[in-house]
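Researcher: We plan to redesign the surface later, but first we want a full-length starting point. Tokens attached.
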């Protein structure tokens, strides 16, 4: 009776209450307990119940194995179904990703075309604006326009770099998708092999518990990997959508800028038409000026001139009197320096200690003028200067000595000294 109770316990416990390893260990313990009880029974009872007990044990084992088989088969089919659904979702996300990439490329092409059209309109706008400003003798406006175009060129360079970075990111995303496709192919092959193993292990259920458990873990890992890949594709889809919206906004802004430039273009054409008769001579003059400017800029770079703000500066190393120093500067296409600000004064202070500047009162005593004829407004005279000692000090020098801020002094023009030449990057006025 004890043996029958033990075998009834084998068929009565729930398979879902514990994992397969625990169930196997419990069954082994039950069978060992049954065998121990059977040994203790009398030989007469053992002979009488042997046949019935063996039949019950066989039936119980068959039921247990059949239940394991059904549960494992159900788990495998559920995992395969989940794997199939995740694969379909991944393919949908890939198609969406491809469509968004194509739309982005189209927007980039549109952006590029609008940028080219904008550049053309800007060039036309620049030419018309230069002609109008030259007729109005506005050298200052031409300088400001050059700075604006430099900033525009800088902005366009930044936009080009952003597009290059975006292109590099897309290439990286494409490589990631290729690697993901390769991994999925390998996982598919692994699943095929696992399916083949499952078919063989189905015929040997007694020895396949461990293999089926390992396969279940592999499918779980595959399920986890596919879920992560789905999330990555969703994030990629979201990023591409945001980039598409940004390109649309950029496209809209460029379209508005193009329309504004077109309107400006039409206005400038209207201003240009009444002035066509007087432009020919001035254009020829500007062409000569441009050629000379390029020539002098090349020479300035080759002679190691130094730049500050919108001017080039040359610091001589040979001492000459004021007139000879000015002739030397003019031979270089420049003139003695004209100091207009504290910043320019500080710049020269860092380069030299003593030298001629373009300031004198040779025409009228006490009336100091720069070499371009402009009167003296901003001054940096040393204390007690100009003194015109003995009536012979008519030229100004830059002299640091023991001074900290104000360095100008008047000395005789015949004294030898180094000099500072200045070449301003400004167009001359058109007369």
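Model: Full-length starting sequence:
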């Amino acid at each position: 009776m004890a043996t029958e109770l033990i075998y009834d316990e084998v068929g009565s416990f729930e398979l879902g209450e514990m994992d397969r390893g625990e169930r196997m260990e419990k069954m082994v313990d039950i069978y060992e307990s049954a065998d121990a009880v059977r040994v203790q029974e009398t030989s007469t009872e053992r002979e009488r119940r042997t046949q019935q007990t063996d039949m019950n044990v066989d039936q119980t084992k068959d039921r247990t194995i059949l239940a394991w088989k059904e549960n494992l088969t159900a788990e495998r089919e559920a995992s395969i179904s989940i794997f199939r659904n995740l694969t379909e979702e991944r393919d949908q996300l890939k198609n969406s990703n491809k469509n968004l990439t194509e739309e982005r490329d189209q927007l980039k092409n549109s952006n590029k075309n609008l940028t080219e059209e904008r550049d053309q309109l800007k060039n036309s706008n620049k030419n018309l604006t230069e002609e109008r400003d030259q007729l109005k003798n506005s050298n200052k406006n031409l300088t400001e326009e050059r700075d604006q175009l430099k900033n525009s060129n800088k902005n366009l360079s930044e936009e080009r770099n952003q597009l290059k970075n975006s292109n590099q990111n897309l290439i990286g995303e494409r490589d990631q998708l290729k690697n993901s496709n390769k991994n999925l192919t390998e996982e598919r092959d692994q699943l095929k092999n696992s399916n083949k193993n499952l078919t063989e292990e189905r015929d040997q259920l007694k020895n396949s518990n461990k293999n089926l458990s390992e396969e279940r873990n592999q499918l779980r890992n595959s399920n986890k990997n596919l879920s992560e890949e789905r999330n990555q594709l969703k994030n990629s889809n979201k990023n591409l959508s945001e980039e598409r919206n940004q390109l649309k906004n950029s496209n809209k802004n460029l379209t508005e800028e193009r329309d504004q430039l077109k309107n400006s273009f039409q206005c400038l054409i209207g201003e240009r038409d009444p002035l066509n008769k007087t432009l020919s001579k001035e254009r020829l003059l500007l062409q000569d000026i441009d050629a000379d400017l390029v020539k002098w800029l090349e020479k300035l770079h080759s002679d190691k001139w130094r730049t500050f703000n919108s001017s080039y500066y040359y610091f001589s190393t040979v001492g000459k009197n004021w007139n000879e120093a000015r002739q030397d500067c003019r031979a270089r296409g420049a003139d003695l320096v004209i100091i207009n600000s504290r910043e320019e004064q500080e710049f020269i202070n860092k380069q030299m200690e003593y030298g001629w500047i373009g300031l004198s009162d040779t025409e009228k005593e006490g009336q100091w003028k720069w070499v371009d004829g402009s009167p003296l407004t901003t001054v940096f005279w040393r204390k007690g200067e100009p003194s015109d000692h003995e009536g012979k000090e008519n030229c100004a020098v830059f002299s640091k000595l023991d001074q900290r801020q104000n360095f100008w002094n008047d000395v005789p023009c015949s004294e030898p000294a180094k000099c500072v030449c200045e070449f301003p990057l400004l167009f001359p006025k058109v007369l």
